[in-house]
Amino acid sequence: MHYARGDAKAYAHANMKGIWAAALTPFTEDGQLDEDGFGENVRHWTEDLGIAGLFVCGKQGEFFSMSPGERKRCLELAVEAVGPGAQTIMSCSDQNLDVVLDLARHAQGAGADYIVVHAPTLHFVHEHDETVYRYYKTISQAVDIGMALWSHPDSGYLMSPQLCNRLADLDNVVAIKYSVPRPMYAELTALASDRIQVSTASEDEWLDNILELDWKLYLCSSPPFLLQTAADRRMHDYTQAAFAGDAAGARRISESLNPVRDALKRTRPAEKPHAHQKYWQDLLGQVGGRVRPPLLELTDDEKAATREAFDQCGLRV
Predict the structure, then answer these.
(1) Which pTM value belongs to this model?
(2) pLDDT, tens only, 248-257
(3) What is the CATH classification number for the domain harbouring 146?
(4) CA dist list (Å): 266 to 105, 207, 234, 270
């Protein structure tokens, strides 16, 4: 860590900015973690694409199929491989609190900049707020590293803006990945942006959130390394134009990416997002690799359709 616990909010406010990406995890043909391939991807993402930070071992990274040891190793590889100035945030999400705390302490010791923990699935619970508050408070008190909250529909409920605003008062809570409808994250921005960075994973909404909500952080999903190449960094370019106040220029650049967005979305089978994105990585020259069970691989026909759309989308490779 580059800061003391009491400085976590100030450090994140000054440094947790720009485009962050949720890393996919490449696995070999026999299902092992592809350490060399992952390191190669991390270097490309942070050095060639200029991505400011990496979200390691999240849902995109198939953490649910990985052992705690593999997740720790993945974080270590990311910390070793990030380019100059890039940062890391490790997902410590798990239903078992002991696993969450073990991963969080490892991340703190291994040099991660922050951790992120998603709201737990709660069984037979209908009034979630106090349970979720005590859950995050327990984690916050157990570690010094800055922590991001994460609310998404997969938990079976969404954390309210009011609950998130209450959690924003915890000493080392520094951000939230808020995968909710726009009115909810706009409300939380108004309530809590003086204490935490509010963000969401939708690249489609990122430009509007810079211009209308004064957001400085995209946290985060896979578009930063699926919509861009070393020769074609239009997401980076429209972001910088928006940060500089050039709304019209930013909008023009962003709209030029619509054919790429369309090709990526319309060829993605509903039940195979990980495999589809990994195949897209292969087409980009990155290391995609296999998915792990229970996830499904693409069929040859699905690959052919994706390849055709990729070749016609106008992304310069």
Answers:
(1) 0.96
(2) 999 999 999 9
(3) 3.20.20.70
(4) 40, 22, 20, 10
